[in-house]
Amino acid sequence: MSTTVDTAMESPTASRGIFNRFIRRNGWTLGLLGILALLLVATKIIQPNYGPAGIQGLAISVLPLALAAVAQTCAVLARGIDLSIGSMMALTSVVAAVLMDERSEGFAMLVVFGVMLLGLVLGAINGSLVVFTRVPDIVVTLAMLFVWAGCALLVLSTPGGGSAEWLGQLTRGPLLSDWVPKAAVLLIVVVGVIWVPIRRSRLGLSLYAVGSDPVAAFRSGVSVTWTKIFSYMLAGLFSAMAGLTLTATTGIGTPVPGPYTLLSVAAVVLGGVSLAGGRGGVFGPVIAVVILSLIRTDMTFLNVDTNLATVAQGLILVGVVMVGSLIQLRRER
Amino acid sequence: MTTSSTGYLLEATDVSKRYGAVVALSSASLQVKPGEVHALMGANGAGKSTLVKILTGGVRPDAGVIQVRGSERSAHSPAEARRGGLVSVYQEPALIPDLDIGSNLRLTQTPVEPFRDWAQRLGLGDLDLSAMARELPLASLRIIDLARALAIDPDVLMLDEMTAALPANLTETVLGVVNERRGGRGSIIFISHRMTEIAAVCDRATVLREGETVGVVDVADPDSADRIVELMLGEIVEDLADRDELLTRGRLDPGISPRLQVKGLAAAARLRDVSFDIRPGEVVGLIALEGQGQDELFDILAGSERPMSGEIVVDGRQVSFRHPADAIAEGMVFVPADRAEALLMQRSVRENIALPFSVRPRNWGPVPRGREKPQVDGAVERLQIDTRAQREVRFLSGGNQQKVTIARWVAGGMETLLCFDPTRGIDIRTKHQIYPLLRELAAAGAAVFLYTSELSEIQLACDRAIVMFNGEIVAEMHVADADEVTLLRAAHNLKADAALPEEVVAAAHAEEDRIEEEPSR
Description:
The complex is a heterodimer of chains A (333) and B (521).
Chain A: H1 3-10, H2 17-25, H3 27-46, H4 52-77, H5 85-100, H6 105-133, H7 137-155, H8 165-171, E1 174-175, E2 177-181, H9 182-200, H10 202-212, H11 214-219, H12 224-250, H13 260-270, H14 283-301, H15 306-332
Antiparallel strand pairs in A: 1-2
Chain B: E1 10-19, E2 22-32, E3 37-42, H1 48-55, E4 63-68, E5 71-72, H2 78-83, E6 86-90, H3 101-107, H4 112-121, H5 138-151, E7 156-160, H6 168-181, E8 187-191, H7 195-201, E9 204-209, E10 212-218, H8 224-233, H9 243-248, E11 260-267, E12 271-278, E13 283-288, H10 294-301, E14 309-314, E15 317-319, H11 324-329, E16 332-335, H12 339-342, H13 349-358, H14 369-382, H15 398-412, E17 416-420, H16 428-443, E18 447-451, H17 456-461, E19 464-469, E20 472-478, H18 484-491, H19 501-510
Parallel strand pairs in B: 3-8, 3-9, 6-7, 7-8, 13-18, 13-19, 16-17, 17-18
Antiparallel strand pairs in B: 1-2, 1-4, 4-5, 9-10, 11-12, 11-14, 14-15, 19-20
Helix pairs in contact in B: 4-5, 7-19, 13-14, 13-15, 14-15
């Protein structure tokens, strides 16, 4: 009988080595990277002159959605969902554009920090409402979608305002090599600087714990309440940064939310984050955003009707998630 | 270490807790001395789990004082209780499935070295800290959870049914560790249904009944097991069952062939080998402590789960159910304890009663209201369902809701009624309508299988009683012999004449070796 325990300890983990385990734990992300590589090759075949300019355009265009996807990941990991991400992006974007309009470059620095703080506050309001009213996440954030969208229109009723020059420069052009767009570096640095330390802290553990098994988390001494609020604050922070990149890349603030909320959910799902919480990371969804965008680009190159391309995008999403889940299911047996 | 003037490490006095109209605890007290292993006992619904939740900070008491070493303490969360020196280990391990073991340790700020030592002593010497919790078998997770609790050397360690689902050798290891800690610095509160384990490792036992502490028993006393059973039951209510009437029960024509035969049914870890018969016209009662396999048994009979092995024979034909609809087609219908599982709370009484016999896929056409009405009305009248509200089922009382659940099967026609604790949380008046109803249905030719968590219901409603322990039938008796003491002893798998702890532990565990590992969550 002692074999039950002994074999269990040896079998799946110790014997196969760290490398194998890394592949297994990050299988989904690695798979997405593989798909991305294939897509880049395909793009080069379809459009032989696709090069540094294309890559830079791609990086700039995915920046807001990639940050929105990271924001959504933070909410979903703790078993929540944030439908107000698009509206928070609009609100933070117009606030930034209005405050930076015709002001000094140095003042813009202050604005950037202020807007990030605003994102944290918006998220804290979302999270507190979810936790203290006990209304389901999806209902609260759906309601806040309208609230933040209305606030954005109150701040600025038509597109306008301005952006500091340096903020725009942060996203445009290459860094060191023509093949390395600044936008991509910015994305990696921002996500890395905020996410990686959190992931390794007890706070990050709590985030996964609450999403994975709230009862076990509670019994392990995790405060479910504060962890949930914290997850929405992170979602707010990344939404604010997504809003800032909207202002930075377009040079103005747009009060009407783009299609970011639902696309962020799509990216989270495609990125291997379980909507039931507790599983996944932020890098999967970021790669998923690039894949979704690259598919659109390829279809444009192939002269596919844009409406048809939207249909195809949806079908690809379902297909990839289905195949991926099947593979995972088979592996777990 | 300092203790209070009273000498108790943990002391809970007059703790009470109400949930709405339900009194979960009225006046519970618990006094744990330093270095002792203290058992907390009580029948289902006695308030044990509420007291545990209050001690661990999961629930706030309405009144009462909890003192640790003589100073008052109020924990509002398990985290606070933990900092106060009280750590709990449950049957379901509190490990996060999506984190590796190392991260789980960091989450509770558990030092790794002591954890490793304990893991080694508990038989997990080669534990890989980077293994994901979800990849480990459940038994290992339970041991890891215990090692994690021991690693911080808590003042009070609470083991809440921790051994209930452990394989035998691990149970022994755990009991060994518990025993070693006796007389040490900290105390252990030990909760288990197994009387033999209580006898083996505990010093004293506090018994709860109906939300009150009714006694503290010194386990070393030779008749402690009987004392505990007595205290758990309280005064046996005699007025309910008429002795002469009892003796007349179950007098069926021996020629009647069984309606339902269950042969060697087994499933997963909890249900191991169950065989019994029920004949038409008979009410058979099932008694078991929580988690002895009765849930699995009913799920299989009702067609919601499929057995791993064994046979179900209905009227001499072997059947296999893929869906509850298959069981219903065989006339085997299920009444669960939780009405919310059976009823559409936001639909009318009529729709709820008519549902099972109007929604079979082959009649997905228009609902024949003309034919339906007399059936529904007949059932409503027969069960005296209070339909004054004429509204959604959720506005009915619990008792009336349960009657709707039974009425739907009476209206639709059934031959075998499977009732899983149908009177749970129902008022006494309705209860006493349900018992005669079950007897009436049986008299009309139905076979009734009744699981109940209330021992007195056996003599109120049944012809025969069977007792399950650890996934097997351990006793079967005529209702006249099935008094509460006998049933409770059988449910704890104690033999009629007081058995020796060691031998019973061995007997109870010998078979457990076969229990297969459940996949971890």
